[in-house]
């Protein structure tokens, strides 16, 4: 490799590959169907399962006994809500405790390392901290019991990038018109930071072909970031009476690859004009699910446009910005609190950010 190539490679990551935060592990429905999931996640091998009461557990994938991998590809299974090791049959409950072995009392100190877990709107998240800190910020409340929303649909991408790059799109309003073709893009109000919570609101218009016709959509979007792994966008479509919740979930896998998950659910917010969407004849429930599917496919197209850039871009610590750019540097300062080497003390970091 030439020195120029190696410099470009070194510059690809802004800093540590695994910033602290809450990261997506799996969909709740996928966990229910597959029973036991294994995954490389933030440089760790993890397994996830749930017991008969629905309590979800995300744990270190290696058995405390003699180190077998506990995942299904090695032969791990879930029986009566407990994870059973394929090597000697030790059984672990969702608290991580070994509760039985086939031939001797369970050793009291046989415990799996657990990750703090949150289940929200059909998605399972777990807390990651490089320095082993307990969660120092929380995710918003689960809203899955609110009426009128479709189930969450999920789409998965695998790419070579860092969550800071994909999440930076939340404030990079200039790219919305250039790469995605949106127009009349306006930032609404100030981008605000309150500890780990960043809010950015904007409006835009876009044209899309739909059932063979071209439609213009007017959209308001409020993005809420909670770290680099969790980005939530509250979207109101003004042309079609539709609200949608949209998540962009960036999860570093092994230091090279990152998983990007798009999640979406919609709610009809009024009477659907059949001349606009051509779906007025469908039962409301079916129409909402179809519209969620179409919204997701539209977002997939947007991500397909971003992917070639994300897969190869480098980190510019001092980017040369224009007056059309969004609050890129504010976002960069916001991100520093999630890198352990910057944590002179979480309280001090949060105070500094509150002054920005
Ligand atoms: S290595 Fe898991 S039971 Fe022995
Ligand atoms: Fe984008």
Structural write-up:
With 356 residues, the chain is an alpha+beta fold. The protein folds into two domains: 21-128, Rieske Iron-sulfur Protein (3-layer Sandwich), CATH 2.102.10; 153-333, Alpha-Beta Complex (Naphthalene 1,2-dioxygenase Alpha Subunit, Chain A, domain 1). It is 22% helix and 35% strand. It has eight helices and 18 strands. A seven-stranded antiparallel sheet has the order 12-18-17-16-15-14-13. It has a four-stranded antiparallel sheet with strand order 2-3-4-9, covered by helices on one side. A four-stranded antiparallel sheet has the order 5-6-7-8, with no helix packed on it. Strand 13 (183-194) and strand 14 form a beta hairpin. The two termini are 41 Å apart. Bound molecules: FE2/S2 (inorganic) cluster and fe (ii) ion. FE2/S2 (inorganic) cluster binds next to loops. The site of fe (ii) ion (FE2) has 5 residues, from helix 6.
Q: Which homologous superfamily in CATH is the superfamily of the largest domain?
A: Naphthalene 1,2-dioxygenase Alpha Subunit, Chain A, domain 1
Quote the average pLDDT.
88
- Which oligomeric state applies? single chain
Tell me the strand percentage band.
25-35%
- What is the topology, as strand order, of the major beta sheet? 12-18-17-16-15-14-13
């Amino acid at each position: 490799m030439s020195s120029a190539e190696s410099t470009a490679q070194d510059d690809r990551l802004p800093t540590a590959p695994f910033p602290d935060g809450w990261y997506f592990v799996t969909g709740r429905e996928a966990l229910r169907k597959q029973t036991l999931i294994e995954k490389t996640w933030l440089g760790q091998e993890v397994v996830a399962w749930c017991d008969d009461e629905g309590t979800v557990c995300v744990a270190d994938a290696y058995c405390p006994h003699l180190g077998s991998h506990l995942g299904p590809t090695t032969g791990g299974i879930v029986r009566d809500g407990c994870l059973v090791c394929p090597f000697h049959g030790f059984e672990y409950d969702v608290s991580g405790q070994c509760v039985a072995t086939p031939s001797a009392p369970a050793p009291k100190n046989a415990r799996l390392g657990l990750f703090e877990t949150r289940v929200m709107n059909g998605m399972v998240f777990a807390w990651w901290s490089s320095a082993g800190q307990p969660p120092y910020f929380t995710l918003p409340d689960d809203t899955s019991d609110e009426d009128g929303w479709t189930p969450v649909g999920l789409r998965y991408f695998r790419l070579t990038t860092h969550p800071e790059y994909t999440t930076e799109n939340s404030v990079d309003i200039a790219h919305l018109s250039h790469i995605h073709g949106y127009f009349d893009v306006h930032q609404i109000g100030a981008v605000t930071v309150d500890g780990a919570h960043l809010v950015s609101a904007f409006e835009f218009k876009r044209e899309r072909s739909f059932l063979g016709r071209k439609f213009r959509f007017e959209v308001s979007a409020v993005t809420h970031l909670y770290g680099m792994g969790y980005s939530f966008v509250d979207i109101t479509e003004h042309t079609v009476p539709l609200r949608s919740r949209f998540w962009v979930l960036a999860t570093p896998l092994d230091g090279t690859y990152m998983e990007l998950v798009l999640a979406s659910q919609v709610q009809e917010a009024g009477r659907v004009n059949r001349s606009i969407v051509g779906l007025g004849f469908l039962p409301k429930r079916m129409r909402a699910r179809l519209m969620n599917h179409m919204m997701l496919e539209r977002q997939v197209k947007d991500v397909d446009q971003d992917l070639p850039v994300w897969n190869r871009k480098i980190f510019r610590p001092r980017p040369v910005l224009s007056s059309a750019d969004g609050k890129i540097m504010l976002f960069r300062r916001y991100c520093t609190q999630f890198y352990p080497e910057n944590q002179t003390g979480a309280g001090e970091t949060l105070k500094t950010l509150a002054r920005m």
